[in-house]
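To the structural biology subgroup,

Please find below the input and predicted structure for DNA topoisomerase, which we are adding to the shared reference set this quarter. The sequence is reproduced verbatim from the submission form. If anyone notices a discrepancy with their own records, reply to this email rather than editing the shared folder directly, so we keep one authoritative version.
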Amino acid sequence: MATLPTELLQQRYLRREPLPEGGFRYLRPNGREYKDAAGLARIAALAVPPAYQEVYVSPDADAELQAFGRDARGRLQYRYHPDFIHAQAMRKWRRLARFAQALPQLRERVAADLRCSGLPRRKVLALLVRLLDRAHLRVGSADYTRRYRSYGLTTLKKQHVRVEGSKVVFHYRGKHGVEQEQSVRDRTLAQLIGRLLALPGSTLFQYEDEEGGRRKVRAEDLNAYIREAMGRFTAKDFRTWGGTLKAAEYLTALGAPTCQRTGARMLSRCVRAVASQLGNTAAVTRSSYICPVIFDLYLAGELVAGEAGGEGGLCPSEAALSRLLARGLRRQRQAVAVAEKAVATQLAESVVQLEEGGREKARPKAAPTRQTTKPTRQAAPANRMGSRELQL
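Predicted structure (tokenized):
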């Protein structure tokens, strides 16, 4: 179900209001205070920061969007239901499995476009995609460069790159002001970037249009090329693929864990190593750039190295990862199907019990049977004045 605009949700959600003595209360759309104890406990568990302004919380424990509000910079922030988050994550990792299947097709297109003469648009975009494929850089945006003086692939300047033979080295200020340094060893890329460095201007990635003029490459151009070549994917998918691939290679090199505790320690080392290569924090890398299926398979001792050769345009480790993703996601779907079947069975049994209980209550009670045996005569009670019976 698509999330409704926040303006409409405000008409249905509870509004958070600060109290003079500290803490908050929550008001219904009609102005009445919300006092449900279980609901207030759920709201507290959402842990919406006290500093957030214009906070609204769903009164429904099953709503996809549980709460939203504005942070100190005025940006909308959201709290989603765990089931919704899990469903979104599963869609994301299924997308990654499809990305692996489409990658060989993209590489064929890139190789063909890199053979074009001159520096036309498709050749320069193919160069950028090759860099994404090899180095998994952030795509960048002109807006971020203007506002924060941070750079990504499409906004790099000539001062951010140097060519050392067949190696290309990038050094630039990335997102959140973090200094990034990455290198790619590829003779074709090194030669093409050398030609781009010789063009006038400070912008690194430019192409020649049909009139012979030069144009800067935009992030929109790059994503359009990717969609045309491999389907509904974007530059960000390369970072997710790269992070998961690096994690799988790192864990494979470590070997199977000897115990659960050792495995957890190895996973932490892996996340830190991948985060360093991607230029992210460990928390962001683990939550956004490494498919958790890889961790599950590693702890189960099933993460194995690729075979001697690649397949279908993928290198050995990529082919192995593609198979692992397909297997791991298939298992998760099967587990979900089993759980859903169990819930459906339990629900059906509950419905049957309720229906039987309803029929039992609705059934008319049988009339009491008429007593046919002669009742035994009981002795008359003794006279309070003595033991002699009263004579009538």
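Summary notes: Confidence is low (pLDDT under 50) at residues 372-392. The domain at 116-233 is CATH 3.90.15.10 (Topoisomerase I; Chain A, domain 3).

Regards,
Lab coordination
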